[in-house]
Design brief:
By secondary structure, the protein is an alpha+beta fold. The protein has a single domain, classed as Gcn5-related N-acetyltransferase (GNAT) (Aminopeptidase). The chain contains six helices and seven strands, in the order βααβββαβαβααβ. The protein has a seven-stranded mixed beta sheet with strand order 1-2-3-4-5-7-6, with helices on both faces. A hairpin with a 2-residue loop joins strand 2 (51-58) and strand 3. It comes from Paenibacillus dendrobii.
């Protein structure tokens, strides 16, 4: 069952993100990976900054989470993770489709360029990578990430995105 998460779910969100993000170890640049991957304080800031989490629950246990953040002209998919033991069962796809249905705006997703499984997942679900120049502008405009992360990331867009249409000069 997919449901909107609330404050009581924050510990489960934290655990899922940090469990699933271990897949990045040795894949993304060493200077970008740390444990925990997302500290509790960072998760709290993300929620305060408008990331709304939805969870996939089965038998009373949260096993997948995905956030969506309204950025005015676009919606961002943020922090999409499924517990390691539950991967490849369609949970991420169900969450993604549910969140896409929550907005009429174009949807953008940022991920690590070396996380090939994540890129394949989003492409399988109708997303495509934007150009390098557009990626850099989008990451600076809609995300708050360091330059090193901009260098090592990609941005994917859904079919509602028209290149440059929403970019503020």
């Amino acid at each position: 069952m997919i449901r909107l998460c609330d404050r009581e779910d924050q510990q489960a969100i934290y655990e899922i993100i940090n469990d699933a993000s271990r897949a990045y170890k040795g894949v993304i640049p060493d200077d970008r990976y740390h444990e925990p991957y997302m500290a509790e304080e960072e998760l709290s800031r993300e929620i305060e900054d408008g990331v709304v989490f939805w969870g996939f629950e089965e038998e009373g246990q949260m096993i997948g989470v995905m956030g969506i953040q309204d950025k005015g002209d676009v919606s961002l998919i943020r922090h999409a993770y499924v517990r390691t033991t539950q991967r490849n069962g369609g949970i991420g796809t169900k969450l993604l489709h549910h969140l896409i249905a929550q907005t009429k705006r174009p949807v953008l997703i940022g991920t690590w360029k070396t996380a090939e499984w994540a890129i394949r997942f989003y492409e399988k679900n109708g997303f495509r990578c934007v150009s390098t120049a557009e990626k850099e502008q989008l990451l600076r405009q809609f995300w708050n990430v360091p330059e090193r992360q901009i260098e090592t990331s990609v941005v994917l867009c859904d079919s509602r995105w028209t290149a440059g249409k929403f970019i503020i000069g």
